[in-house]
Each structure stands twice: as structure tokens, then as C-alpha cells.
Specification:
The protein has about 650 residues and is α+β, with helices and mostly antiparallel strands. It contains 21 helices and 26 strands. The chain has three domains: about 110 residues, Nuclear Transport Factor 2, Chain: A; about 130 residues, no CATH class; about 300 residues, DD-peptidase/beta-lactamase superfamily (Beta-lactamase, 3-Layer(aba) Sandwich), CATH 3.40.710. Belongs to the class-D beta-lactamase family.
């Protein structure tokens, strides 16, 4: 048997005298006999009289391992069983998914010979891939019972002050989403007070819930069948959102009382990221909503179901910048019998990182004026774009109601019609023409069997050999097409590029700056001179073309402050060339189709129409571009008679509203 530590065998002083009844050899014989008997007795009991009590180290280390694994089979416990302790730890860790701690024995306090000990455990949780770990110490009381050490069970061994009716969970804590702001710092997209209206299924169930959903949907103006199905599919305790309304929404004023009477209907105050009004630059700004399953998967662990993300527009394109990064909080949660949260407290927190505001060039004054201008255009899709000439900043980009929230203003792809004659004029200038160079303006012109003619109301007194300035001012198609053998398609493409057309633009979506495809077909080439054939542009494109002329150099549009600028074209616009074009565009206002804009101070303009469809006669897109001061404007109407009646009114209305704001 192993020997224990020596504790000492002399209990009194040695005097050298004999005071007892045994002396000499008789005394030595008695002591030997006594020791021999004790040894035999000890051996018979299977231990040694020199053994010391076992050390508590093994039991303490077993406890540390069990707190990591949840298996308490090898831990001698006092106050509970290994099975119960294991079940508690399993339940406590369930809300942490695969996250588990690393627990180690850092210190053991035990006085020699004492039946009490204290184990100090060090616990580390790698809560996230970044940031500090969650660490803490806990103390386990240990008691020597019948020669073995037992650990006194305490739920606080699992986490600081954890109670027997609590479990652990991780809550992601997103920072407040950063704003989209205008150049002055004014908030455009920001959190605003709203009312979330829906059905609370704890107050209505079964067929009643479906009936309530239909009644509520009808009052809110949403699809009753679809919403009733959504309510039916939700859990028994769910609140099923139907619609989010602003405080000023007319639905609240009109149907608020009726909504309150729908059984199970509930209106919950909330904060939501919104623009200044429901339609304000909506196709550009986008919206914020719950992450889709695809977005969650693509985020590689950054997003979870229920997280808020940008769903389209700028909010989507710059979502990572705006949302920031979430912090984490480990919480102790107390739940009721039905699983509802009764109480929770925070045990550890990792701070979130704030998102960064996004500054855009939209001018609220100009955007509001543009939207007011198009607000009543419900018959056909319409759009208006305004640029600041000196900087290329997009000041306004609006669409009418019939555009159904599309990206028509910045990314539409339609034939620009005669507004493209600005590029055709530049191509002629590069072949030696000036504003005074005469071109043959005939009633019609045939190219490879295709007959081209002027618009039906073209003035008869402007036919014949006329200056290019006059041809542009009154928009003579045949005068420009007459140059198809002298000016190649490549010449037209280069001229268009010099005016800012043709590049890919990285906006919240793929912005469209126009296209002039190469072609060997003579008819298609002839049609390109008047902005038809396969030539395409967006309202943004034609605003850029005019702004380049006004500035005297190729303009690059900008929507997001600080975004990389596009490279200059192979042949940038020359100031002298631009001077010729400005002279022609002034003539449009002074004597041609743009005279209607002159009272508003417009200096440069050009109308345009482009036939499309299969009707006879075909429908026409209508255009008008106009420049005043430091602003270039393009207005588009999907269907109209001509630029003067179909699009110019938008520019007039916009400028009047803009001047008043």
C-alpha cells in the first residue's frame, strides 16, 4: 500500500524515565505486538494506515469536461443526478446551435486533511469569428463523502448566475440602419414612424381568422385571397402583417375606425426605413425588408432569417455599407410553459458596428417637382430626368404612375427619335459641316427601297436646301438621312460616345447610357440618323447628351457621391464642336419646335418622336430635352403626338414647380 505523508509521531517530550508498569524488553515487546496487530487489521481492511484522503483534482477535471460535453456520467454529483445535470445543460445549450464552451480547471483550493475543497473553472466561448471571446470563472464546492469527492450541483456552473428555470440563447443585435442622405446631409431614407396593420391569431382562429383577413385586406386595398392564405399558413400565436402605413396615410383616415372593428385586427406602432413619401424616388432608393432565403444563403453566415436588408434600388446595391455589422448578446432566458419569453437578461455582449450613410446627388426640391409634374400621367409610362451640367449630378429622376415603379428614368431602353439628331449633327460637324452648311430637306427620301419622310406637320416653307441649324430647329428627317453615304455608322457611334452615350453605368441597377449598334445594313444605318432603327436611349441618356453640349465636354453622370467616374471616350467632345451644337440648339428655342419653352428661360432644346408598334399609323414615343442655366432636362412620354404636345408640358410644369420650391 502507498504511504501517505508523514504527520509526525511524537506528542510529548522525551524524559528518559519510566513512569508506566512496563520496562525494558517487556515494553518493547508490547509495542511491537500492538503494531503487528494493527498492521494485520489494516491489511485485512484493504488499506494502509499511512494512506491520506484522495485529492479532489480528478473530480474537478471531470466536471470541467462535463460542462463542455454535457455528459455528466463520470461526475460524482451532490444535489442532483448525472442524468438530470446532463439534461439541464443540454436544454441550456439548445438555443446556441453548435456553439459550445471550452472549460478548464484553473485553480483548486484544498487544505490538507480537509473534507472541503473549491474548484475554480475557467470558461471560454468563441461567440463570433471576430471580437473578444466571452470568458468567466465559476466556483464549484466539493465535499469528501465516504472517501470520494462529490461536486455540489449549481446551475450557475453553466453560466454566471444561471437559474434552474433559465436557458441560454444568442441574440443578434443589428445597429440602426444608416441613412441615405442628400448632399446637404438631409435625410432621404431614414427610420420613420409607421403603423403595422395585421391579424393577431391569438385573438381569432380558424375560419374566423380567414374571414377577418379578407375584411382587413379589403379595407387596406390588398389582395384578400392572398392575405387570407398567408394568415391561414401562420402559426396559432402569430401576428401576420398585412400592410405598413405611414401616420399620414389616407387609408388610416378613411378606414381607421372600420379596421379597428375587424375581429383580431391589430395596429402596432413601429419604425421603418422609408423615403419622404410613398413614391419619392422609389425605383432609385429601393426599400428595406426581410432577407430572402437566397440572400441568407449568399451571405455565408452574416444574415439570418428575419434580418432586415435592402431589397432593391440603392438600399440593395449598398446594403452592406448601410446595415453595418451586427453585435451579439448571450442572454439567459426564462420561458413560460407555452414557450413564451417571460424574462431575459444579458450575460455578454459584443458591440455592433454602425453602418455608414450613403450620400446621393438627388435634390429633394428637384425630385419633388419632377414627381408632382408626372403625378397625373396615368395613361402611359412617363419619365423626367434633370442633371446639374457643371458636375453631372443627377438632381431628379422621376416616373409617372403608369410606369409602375420601373427604372424607366435611368435605365429605360427606347428609341430616342430626333433628339439623337444632336449626335448626328456632331458627326456632320466632324465631316466639315457647320451650323450654316446646307442640307437637302426633301419631303421624302428612299434608301435601299425604304421610304423615309418627315413628320406630317413639317412646315412646307422649310423644305429645300436649308442650313443644318434650320434642319435641326425644325427636325427635318430627310436632311440628316441624306448624309448616310458621307457619314458612316462608326462615325455616328463615335459622335454618340463623345456626347456621353454607350457606357455601362453602375447605379442601384444597371443604368443605361444608350446604344448605337454597328451595322452594315444601309436602311438601318439611315434610320440611325433620326434615332430609330436599333438606336436606344434612356431619359438619363438624352439628358447627358444635352448636358455634354452645354458643358462643352463629355459629361459623366453621378448619382452616388464619391462613386468612381467613367473613363473619357476615345474621342472626347471638343469645345469648338460643342459651340456649333449649342448654336443649333438655341435655334430650336428661338425659331423651331422649342419656342414653347422660351418664356421659362430655356436656352437649348430639341424635340423627338420615334415610331413603334404594329398600328397603322404606328404609335410614337415623344421626347423633349431642354437646358437652362446649369440644368439639363429630358422628358419622355411612351405615347404622344409629338414632342411639343407630348413631352414639353412636363418640362414646363417641372420648371415652374422647381422655381416655386
Amino acid at each position: 500500500m502507498p504511504r501517505g505523508p508523514r504527520t509526525g509521531s511524537h506528542t510529548g517530550p522525551r524524559t528518559g524515565s519510566h513512569t508506566g508498569p512496563f520496562t525494558g524488553s517487556r515494553r518493547r515487546s508490547f509495542v511491537a505486538t500492538a503494531l503487528s496487530g494493527a498492521l494485520v487489521a489494516a491489511l485485512g481492511a484493504g488499506c494502509s494506515m499511512f494512506d491520506s484522503p484522495p485529492e479532489p483534482n480528478d473530480a474537478a477535471r471531470a466536471l470541467a469536461a462535463a460542462l463542455t460535453s454535457g455528459d455528466f456520467a463520470n461526475v460524482p454529483l451532490k444535489g442532483t443526478t448525472g442524468a438530470k445535470a446532463g439534461a439541464f445543460v443540454k436544454a441550456a445549450y439548445k438555443g446556441l446551435d453548435a456553439l459550445r464552451p471550452t472549460v478548464s480547471l484553473s485553480e483548486l483550493s484544498h487544505a490538507e486533511g480537509s473534507e472541503k475543497a473549491t474548484a475554480t473553472l475557467f470558461t471560454r466561448w468563441d461567440v463570433s469569428r471576430t471580437g473578444p471571446d466571452w470568458t468567466y470563472e465559476s466556483k464549484a464546492a466539493m465535499t469528501l463523502v465516504d472517501g470520494a469527492w462529490q461536486v455540489s450541483w449549481n446551475p450557475a456552473l453553466v453560466a454566471p448566475q444561471l437559474a434552474s428555470d433559465e436557458t441560454l440563447t444568442i441574440a443578434r443585435k443589428w445597429p440602426r440602419r444608416a441613412d441615405i442622405v442628400d448632399p446637404t446631409g438631409g435625410k432621404i431614407m431614414t427610420e420613420r414612424e409607421v403603423a403595422v396593420v395585421g391579424i393577431d391569431k391569438t385573438k381569432v382562429a380558424g375560419g374566423e381568422a380567414a374571414a377577418s383577413a379578407r375584411r382587413l385586406a379589403a379595407l387596406l386595398g390588398i389582395d384578400p385571397t392572398r392575405y387570407a392564405a398567408k394568415v391561414g399558413a401562420a402559426g396559432a400565436r402569430a401576428f401576420v402583417e398585412a400592410l405598413t402605413l405611414r401616420e399620414t396615410d389616407p387609408v388610416i383616415e378613411k378606414n381607421g375606425a372600420a379596421i379597428a372593428k375587424v375581429k383580431g385586427a391589430l395596429t402596432v406602432p413601429a419604425m421603418k426605413v422609408l423615403g419622404p413619401s410613398r413614391g419619392f424616388a422609389a425605383p432609385i432608393l429601393g426599400s428595406v425588408g426581410e432577407a430572402t432565403a437566397e440572400q441568407v444563403k449568399a451571405s455565408k453566415g452574416i444574415l439570418e432569417a428575419g434580418d432586415s436588408v435592402g431589397t432593391n434600388g440603392l438600399e440593395f446595391r449598398y446594403d452592406e455599407q448601410l446595415r453595418g455589422t451586427p453585435g451579439l448578446a448571450v442572454q439567459a432566458v426564462k420561458r413560460g410553459a407555452d414557450g413564451s419569453v417571460l424574462d431575459k437578461r444579458e450575460l455578454f455582449a459584443e458591440q455592433s458596428t454602425e453602418g455608414q450613410p450613403l450620400t446621393i446627388t438627388l435634390d429633394p426640391k428637384a425630385q419633388s417637382a419632377a414627381e408632382a409634374t408626372l403625378a397625373k400621367q396615368t395613361a402611359h409610362p412617363t419619365a423626367l430626368v434633370a442633371l446639374r451640367v457643371s458636375t453631372g449630378e443627377i438632381l431628379a429622376a422621376a416616373v409617372g404612375p403608369a410606369a409602375n415603379g420601373s427604372t424607366l428614368a435611368l435605365a429605360g431602353k427606347v428609341a430616342p427619335g430626333s433628339t439623337f439628331k444632336i449626335a448626328s449633327s456632331l458627326a456632320n460637324v466632324r465631316k466639315g459641316a457647320t451650323a450654316d452648311t446646307t442640307l437637302p430637306c426633301t419631303e421624302s427620301l428612299t434608301v435601299n427601297g425604304r421610304r423615309f419622310s418627315n413628320y406630317t406637320t413639317y412646315p412646307k416653307d422649310k423644305l429645300g436646301d436649308i442650313p443644318m441649324q434650320t434642319a435641326l430647329a425644325f427636325s427635318c428627317n430627310t436632311a440628316f438621312i441624306s448624309q448616310h453615304e458621307k457619314v458612316s455608322q462608326d462615325d455616328l457611334i463615335a459622335a454618340a460616345q463623345s456626347l456621353g452615350m454607350g457606357d455601362k453605368l453602375d447605379l442601384p441597377f444597371t443604368g443605361f447610357l444608350g446604344s448605337v449598334p454597328p451595322t452594315d445594313d444601309a436602311v438601318e444605318h439611315a434610320a440611325s440618323f433620326i434615332g430609330q432603327g436599333r438606336v436606344e436611349a434612356s431619359p438619363l441618356t438624352m439628358a447627358v447628351v444635352l448636358a455634354s453640349v452645354m458643358k462643352g465636354q463629355t459629361l459623366r453622370p453621378q448619382l452616388v457621391a464619391g462613386a468612381p467616374a467613367l473613363a473619357n471616350p476615345a474621342t472626347p467632345l471638343d469645345p469648338t464642336e460643342a459651340g456649333v451644337l449649342r448654336q443649333e440648339l438655341r435655334a430650336v428655342v428661338d425659331e423651331g419646335s422649342g419656342k414653347v419653352l422660351k418664356p421659362l428661360g430655356v436656352e437649348y432644346a430639341k424635340t423627338g418622336t420615334a415610331e413603334f408598334g404594329t398600328k397603322n399609323p404606328p404609335d410614337t414615343h415623344t421626347w423633349m430635352v431642354a437646358g437652362r442655366g446649369d440644368i439639363a432636362i429630358a422628358a419622355y412620354n411612351e405615347v404622344g403626338d409629338n414632342g411639343v404636345t407630348g413631352s414639353a408640358p412636363f418640362i414646363i410644369s417641372f420648371l415652374k414647380a422647381y422655381d416655386l420650391r
